[in-house]
Design brief:
The structure is a single chain. This protein is of the alpha+beta class. Among the domains are: 30 residues, no CATH class; 80 residues, Muramoyl-pentapeptide Carboxypeptidase, domain 2 (2-Layer Sandwich). The chain contains 7 helices and 4 strands. The chain has a 4-stranded antiparallel β-sheet with strand order 1-2-4-3. Helix 2 packs across helix 3. The longest helix has 18 residues.
Amino acid sequence: MLAVVLLPVALVAAPRRALQVACQWALAARFPTENLAGLTPATRAAFTAARTRALWRDGEVVGLTSGYRDLAEQERLFAEEVRGSGSAAAARARALPPHESRHVAGTALDVRPVAGARWLERHGSRYHLYRMYDNEWWHFEYCPDDPPRRLPHPGMSHSDPSHSE
């Protein structure tokens, strides 16, 4: 609703991008701590285009919980999972070390709410955004080359022979 109210102002401010700008303003009001900084330009553009379409076409809100993480933040998150689960191997079912995390590369997105994630799962391929893991409804990655195969959890490798399609 806020995006509709903001649309006339966005038409004046950015006539060619009014829908995107009004969406961006409305989402900034809804999710004030959201931060798209650090995402690769292509990832950011894809996510912005997808969430703009979600809002204007289907009335769905797609927010960002977490995008880019620096090495230290990812290491801290992984260390917390190791402490909580008891081992690095067990922790990998929920988090990856920094050298493997696409958050550190700026191409991973943790989204919210659940309905927004469902929308992105249905329509994200148009933007090269794919849900990556069965156990993480919120985690999507920008994959411009080929659609990835969804894995059971982050620690499962695409080359792992125990995972069949």
